[in-house]
């Protein structure tokens, strides 16, 4: 048996022992996780700096805070969410107990990714633990430092059998996917998402796939462009554009394109100075392959700002492209880099059509002071989620599910949705084994008992 | 032990037994459908090009029973242009036009308004009301289903779901506001329920009305366009679903497609926005996997309602007759062909001794001295399943029943004892009127036995002791659970119906149907103001900002991630 197979079997045996059933156990594990985060803050920041040029602020604000809040929320709510949920009864079941009973699924696989390597790996884990599962975690090998850190510290704080960390690349992930588990949560890209679902189909394992897409950002003529552009710049260029819910491209009327460019530039200078390369707050591209890819997307485009890069440090300047042709390469794939194309459309309807003709994205953004515009945009498109008049922040509301639709994914998590995703909600009806006379009518022979409408 | 009745002494049945009908006749039975570009099904034999514009000719050289019939849509063309030369038949995709049409209808937004959806649901309601007799006859032909069973387990359940959806449609469609915290008080945060788009529903033969219409209710209520693939095994019902049902619905948004495994495979190569599959016994895990793998190619989310061996634990502390009545009712209902039927009993040898005569009493009470002549007992759907079940009669020892009649595909209500775990009857989902009893020496042993196996769709525990019932519940897993009765839990629309593990994924019924067929879109509507508060999030980042953030986190006075 391979090492990975052993690890998974051990996790399953630990789950089958019933250890994770008591709520107190789960809460203790979450508290241990919280301690781990607090005691290893510096190491977490160090790993993020090494992997992605993130600084202390990025680490906390964009990753650690999410996870800590999720842990708090989960600890508080576990007793409520794990409790049996009574349901409405029918006339025939008035004397019975009718409820939904939440149970853990068993062994959950979490396959993380590299762009927010701490948050996207640990936040799902929080929900899976809270729901009472064993969790096998596979951080992304691309964010090597974080992967090593997690493999080192998690076993020091959490139950080693129940919550193992597996590191490695494609061969290890493939090996892992051969093992049977009870739910897989994968964060990553569409192509690999299909591979994961295919592998899951062999075992009839349900999946949650957090994928990506080109998240459109429609900027209406009727909006406060200063605020809009500042918010867009913040969301787009954080982590050097490597955010699955970043606004991927802007749609706007040609008459405001120049203003948008100017205001984006202004915000970028406020954020990162004249030369973002010197800013402590500006990220780097994860590796050379992605660096080349993103640089390639700029070829042949009209550059209004930026457009340069440095392969040695994997730095790409914050870049704005204008008058972008929808057929060009930069509009064919998820950019996942600090390049903001602006595509001109002449009306809201044209913007809606443009969006609807494409794959459903993970997020959609619309900036307008006019509620009707916002309503229409939302009503006539689809996406995983929406924020109006800001970007990204819908994913930070615990009571909103975070997930995609169509090519951008299936299933969702965060907060209560995490708990539900990693639980089986089992329908239960319990009646007394009383005298059967009252139920006589349902037994055959039944010809005489046919009711007629 | 009953001796098999002589065939000649059987009273003439009120309904024609499909088993005794000759094999399907072929092209004489013309099937005309109301949807354009919709293949005619010639039951395994080639057609003779009887329909104008039909492709392929008489030779059936392409091998497929499908013929692509053009013509209906063409006749509406203006200008009297000549018909285009039909493309060669071999690589034809019989579904492409239908699917394109439905997608276009969805994109047009037709299915979005509540009025449209309500009209579809009302259409379904009329369909049931106006064709009740027809459906009962079809169910009798397909499964020898009694009028009572048809009413209770097919028609009424479907009607109730339609009524529930109509009553609640607008409230289900409403945006679901979510709790906000301090930082989001001025924002609007809600979940918008949206249709996925084009939904495929693949239905089985055992409850061909219920398991087709109930998912359909959810898919239509949620605003989707639907392709329905009823089972080819329940032929009479299939015919009504294909020929009559579409008349009650807007056919630009709804289509029925027919065929067997080959056609279903072809259908599954297309992209759908949601696939709802209810499997059939015997091969459900395998077919479930095939459906999910096909869905994976297009990243299509799925609900799979599969099956399993549903254990039925009977405690020593019980009244055997009450237990026997309930177990027998739910086991032999629909000839045992129910995905949530108790599949096998686990009990001590002592309890078995008490149960056996009680089961015999129940069977006699329900089906008379000669169950074969009872109108309350169903028949096996097909020759293949009949043979499969007849084979299972050889397992263990027949304690009750055991008779069979091939000409009617009849299997007597049977109880088997002395059954070993390794025998076929304990290896596959039975899906027939056979109930094996397996002995265990204790509750713990029963629970171990259950947990060694795949998670079933349903699980039953009978005991006077609530503690025992709750212990079984707590220490096992299954799609659903009922203490002290059969599949009553399915009759509540307020309980989600679905499997777990090998018995399936996802669930439906009532509001759960609506939610299953909807994408739950997270929406946050912000105002452009309050920029000062949010400015803490913008670079350049200072140690001061970080300290502020950490203080706020410690105080937990707000959700900091929202800044």
TrEMBL record, chain A:
The keyword Lipid metabolism applies. GO terms for cellular component: cytosol; endoplasmic reticulum; plasma membrane. PROSITE patterns: ALDEHYDE_DEHYDR_CYS (PS00070), ALDEHYDE_DEHYDR_GLU (PS00687). The active site is at 210, 244. One of its GO terms (molecular function) is alcohol dehydrogenase (NADP+) activity. Gene3D superfamilies: Aldehyde Dehydrogenase, Chain A, domain 1, Aldehyde Dehydrogenase, Chain A, domain 2. CDD domains: ALDH_F3AB (cd07132). Residues 23-50 form a coiled coil. GO terms for biological process: aldehyde metabolic process; lipid metabolic process. It catalyses: an aldehyde + NAD(+) + H2O = a carboxylate + NADH + 2 H(+); octanal + NAD(+) + H2O = octanoate + NADH + 2 H(+). Residues 3-425 form the Aldehyde dehydrogenase domain. It is found in: Cytoplasm. Keywords: Coiled coil, Cytoplasm, Lipid metabolism, NAD, NADP, Oxidoreductase. The keyword GTP-binding does not apply. ALDHs play a major role in the detoxification of alcohol-derived acetaldehyde. They are involved in the metabolism of corticosteroids, biogenic amines, neurotransmitters, and lipid peroxidation. Oxidizes medium and long chain aldehydes into non-toxic fatty acids. Preferentially oxidizes aromatic aldehyde substrates. Comprises about 50 percent of corneal epithelial soluble proteins. May play a role in preventing corneal damage caused by ultraviolet light. Homodimer. Belongs to the aldehyde dehydrogenase family. This is Aldehyde dehydrogenase. The lineage of its organism: Eukaryota, Metazoa, Chordata, Craniata, Vertebrata.
């Amino acid at each position: 048996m391979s090492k990975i197979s052993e690890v998974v079997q051990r996790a399953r045996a630990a789950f089958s022992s019933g250890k994770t059933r008591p709520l107190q156990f789960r809460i203790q594990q979450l508290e241990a996780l919280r301690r781990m985060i607090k005691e290893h803050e510096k190491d977490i920041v160090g790993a993020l700096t090494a992997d992605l040029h993130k600084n202390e602020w990025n680490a906390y604000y964009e990753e650690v805070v999410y996870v800590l809040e999720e842990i708090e929320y989960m600890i508080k709510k576990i007793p409520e969410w794990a409790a049996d949920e009574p349901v409405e009864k029918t006339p025939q079941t008035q004397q019975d107990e009718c409820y939904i009973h939440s149970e853990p699924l068993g062994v959950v696989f979490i396959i993380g990714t590299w762009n927010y390597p701490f948050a996207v790996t640990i936040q799902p884990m929080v929900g899976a633990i809270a729901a009472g599962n064993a969790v096998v975690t596979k951080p992304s090998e691309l964010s090597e430092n974080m992967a090593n850190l997690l493999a080192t510290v998690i076993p020091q704080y959490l139950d080693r059998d129940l919550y193992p960390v597996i590191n490695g690349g494609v061969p290890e992930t493939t090996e892992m996917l051969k093992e049977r588990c009870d739910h897989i949560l994968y964060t990553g890209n569409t192509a690999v998402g299909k591979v994961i679902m295919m592998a899951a189909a062999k075992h009839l394992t349900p999946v949650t796939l957090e994928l990506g897409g080109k998240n459109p950002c429609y900027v209406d003529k009727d909006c406060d462009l200063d605020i809009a552009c500042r918010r867009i710049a913040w969301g787009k260029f954080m982590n050097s554009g490597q955010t699955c819910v970043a606004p991927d491209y802007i749609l706007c009327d040609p008459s405001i394109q120049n203003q948008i460019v100017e205001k984006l530039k202004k915000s970028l200078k406020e954020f990162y100075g004249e030369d973002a390369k010197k800013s402590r707050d500006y990220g780097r591209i994860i590796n050379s392959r992605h660096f080349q890819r993103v640089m390639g997307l700029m070829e042949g485009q009209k550059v209004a700002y930026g457009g340069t890069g440095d392969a040695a440090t994997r730095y790409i300047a914050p870049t704005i492209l204008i008058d972008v042709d929808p057929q060009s390469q930069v509009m064919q794939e998820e950019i996942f880099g600090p390049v903001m194309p602006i595509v001109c459309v002449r009306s809201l309807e044209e913007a809606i059509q443009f969006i609807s003709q494409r794959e459903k994205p993970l997020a959609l953004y619309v900036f307008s002071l006019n509620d009707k515009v916002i309503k229409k945009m939302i009503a006539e498109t689809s996406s995983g989620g929406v924020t109006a008049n800001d970007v990204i922040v819908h994913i930070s509301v615990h009571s909103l599910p975070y997930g995609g639709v169509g090519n951008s994914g299936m299933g969702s998590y965060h907060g209560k949705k995490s708990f539900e995703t990693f639980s089986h909600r089992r329908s239960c009806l319990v009646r007394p084994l009383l005298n059967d006379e009252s139920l006589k009518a349902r037994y055959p022979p039944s010809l005489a008992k046919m009711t007629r409408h | 032990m009953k001796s098999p009745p002589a065939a000649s002494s059987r009273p003439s049945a009120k309904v024609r037994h499909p088993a005794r009908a000759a094999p399907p006749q072929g092209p004489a039975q013309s099937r005309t459908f109301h949807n354009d570009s919709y293949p005619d099904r010639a039951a395994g034999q080639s057609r003779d090009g009887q329909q104008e514009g039909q492709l392929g000719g008489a030779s059936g050289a392409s091998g497929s029973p499908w013929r692509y019939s053009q013509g209906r849509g063409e006749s509406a063309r203006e200008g009297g242009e000549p018909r285009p030369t039909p493309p060669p038949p071999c690589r034809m995709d019989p579904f492409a036009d239908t699917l394109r049409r439905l997608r276009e209808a969805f994109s047009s937004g037709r299915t979005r308004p509540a009025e449209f959806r309500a009209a579809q649901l009302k259409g379904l309601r009329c369909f049931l009301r106006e064709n009740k007799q027809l459906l009962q006859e079809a169910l009798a032909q397909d499964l020898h289903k009694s009028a009572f069973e048809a009413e209770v387990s097919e028609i009424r359940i479907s009607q109730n779901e339609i009524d529930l959806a109509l009553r609640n449609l607008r409230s289900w469609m409403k945006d679901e506001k979510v709790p906000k915290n301090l930082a989001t008080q001025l924002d609007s945060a809600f979940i918008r329920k949206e249709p996925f788009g084009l939904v495929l529903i693949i239905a089985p033969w055992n409850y061909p009305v219920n398991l087709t219409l109930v998912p359909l209710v959810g898919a239509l209520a949620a605003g989707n366009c639907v392709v329905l693939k009823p089972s080819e095994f329940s032929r009479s019902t299939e015919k009504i679903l294909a020929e009559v049902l579409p008349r009650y619905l807007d056919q630009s948004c709804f289509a029925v497609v027919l065929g067997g495994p080959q056609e279903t495979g072809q259908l599954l190569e297309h992209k759908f926005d949601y696939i709802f599959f209810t499997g059939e016994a015997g091969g459900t895990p395998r077919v479930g996997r095939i459906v999910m793998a096909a869905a994976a190619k297009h990243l299509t989310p799925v609900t799979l309602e599969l099956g399993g061996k549903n254990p039925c634990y009977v405690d020593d502390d019980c009244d055997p007759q009450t237990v026997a009545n309930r177990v027998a009712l739910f086991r032999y209902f629909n000839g045992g062909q129910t995905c949530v039927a108790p599949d096998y009993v686990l009990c001590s040898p002592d309890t078995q001794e008490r149960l056996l005569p009680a089961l015999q009493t129940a069977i006699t009470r329900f089906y008379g001295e000669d169950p074969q002549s009872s109108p309350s007992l169903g028949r096996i759907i097909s020759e293949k399943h009949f043979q499969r079940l007849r084979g299972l009669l050889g397992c263990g020892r027949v304690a009750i029943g055991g008779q069979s009649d091939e000409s009617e595909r009849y299997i007597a209500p049977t109880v088997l004892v002395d059954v070993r775990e390794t025998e076929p009857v304990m290896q596959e989902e039975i899906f027939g009127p056979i109930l094996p009893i397996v002995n265990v020496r204790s509750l713990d042993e029963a629970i171990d036995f259950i947990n060694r196996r795949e998670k079933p769709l349903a699980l039953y525990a009978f005991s006077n002791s609530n503690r025992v019932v709750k212990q079984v519940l707590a220490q096992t897993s299954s799609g659903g659970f009922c203490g002290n009765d059969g599949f009553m839990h399915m009759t509540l629309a307020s309980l989600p119906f679905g499997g777990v593990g090998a018995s399936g994924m996802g669930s439906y019924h009532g509001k759960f149907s609506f939610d299953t067929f909807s994408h739950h879109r997270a929406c946050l509507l912000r105002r452009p103001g309050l920029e000062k508060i949010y400015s803490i999030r913008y670079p350049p980042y200072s140690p001061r900002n970080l300290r502020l953030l950490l203080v706020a986190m410690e105080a937990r006075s707000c959700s900091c991630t929202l800044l």
